[in-house]
Structure prediction request, 499 residues.
Amino acid sequence: MTQVTPRESDWQRLDPRMLAVTPLRQLARFLPVIVVVLVIGMGQDLGERVDGLLVGVLIVLLTGMLRWFTTRYRITSKHVELRSGLLNRRARSVPRDRIRSVDVTAGLMHRLFRLSVVKIGTGERTGGVESRELTLDAISTAEAERVRQRLLDPLDAGHLDRSAVTVAPGATELAVLNWCWLRFAPLTASSLVAVGAVAGACEQLIGDVGADAVVVGGVREKLTTAPLWLAIAAFAGLVLVIALVGSALIFVEAWWGFQLVRELGGTLRIRRGLLTTRSVSLEERRLRGVEVVEPPLLRVGRGARTAAVATGLGGRRGHGRGTLLPPAPRNEAHRVSGAVLAEDPSPTSTTLSRHPLVALRRRLVRATLPVLAGSVTLWLAPVPAWVPWATLSVLPVTVLLALDAYRNLGHALTGHYLVTRHGAGVRGTVALQRSGVIGWTVSQSFFQRRAGLVTVTATTAAGSGGYPVIDVATAEGLAVAKQVVPGLLEPFLQHGPAV
Prediction:
């Protein structure tokens, strides 16, 4: 491709306020090191230590200034270009037609200076890392909004309208945060993370103030002298409180101010965050469906999550980019999925066809045979007598998971969507656009063939890349595939399903 030398006036610098933000952020990272230097050098002259720290601060400031002076970007009608570096010059360019996501984030330090970070991604990933992503860190919040609107405007002619408003007019609100949803916070995996995070923070705080011997020692003494049942109850209560508080704090920080809107021009925008604000934009023309996910604890509380199935998100549910709704009531998750797809009622809440009972038998066999075989093997092996019984005790759990897996199997066809559901413990219901299916994978194992079952997987360029209808009757599964994409399977049916 012929490269045209750009005029210097076409290029823009990052916001000058980054000269304050970048050093402050870097100094915050080195704060523990600074404290250690001050503590270690207690025997040295105070002036020498201060001079050394001033030199370090000066180096950080100069680094930030060099980054501002040597970084430029520009947006044309065809490319987004970024140049950076002094000695090691680096130039990156992303074609406008390859842009799949424009994320706007602002940490606490950025918000204080009214700055934002714009991440422009293409969805192409190499080794789990997005290989073609440009980051503008940092530009003004108003400029970030104008850049976002321009990059997501398919009719943009390459001219950035400086008078554009910062909020798209005529946006339709699809969902906002309801604080009643806070009850779902402890029912997510983040509650387990919260236990470790809050407990670690408390331990660090106790150690910093030098009260670890008094507090920990006193608690240990009370627990050892108390009855066993009381000690267990106290420990369980402490863990429960930490989990509740920690998960609630994580929920509030992540979903504060949540809003899902549909903007004019066909863009879904998700805004959320307390300390760090996040804005994710999804073009509806890249949307291929939605997925309602129900992890085990959320299922108990009748809750669920809603995620987008879209191209360019960079993997399964886009590593968080495609999340359309925080943990919320199941009915709300289905309502939002219908609003996003502009379908009423939502395809994800449609009645699904049950799969043959032989599929239940397959799951029960796979749940019981390994456990029974393992128990018999351990019974014959030179191990303590309780080990085989302990192995056998998991049988009720595997049977319940098998029953749940069969109960969750189902599929349906609506006017525009293929709906499939499966999962043991974690239940996922996907509504996939029939026009978004680009191929089928038909698989049938030896045991499936004997049972008259088949698994047909709809291949798509979005989301995880394939969504299966598992253990469906052979004739019905092939009929579904033919109905979704007429004429695609006929040339191959004469050879039978692939093994």
User: Anything to note?
Assistant: DSSP finds 16 helices and 22 strands in the chain. The longest strand covers residues 133-140.
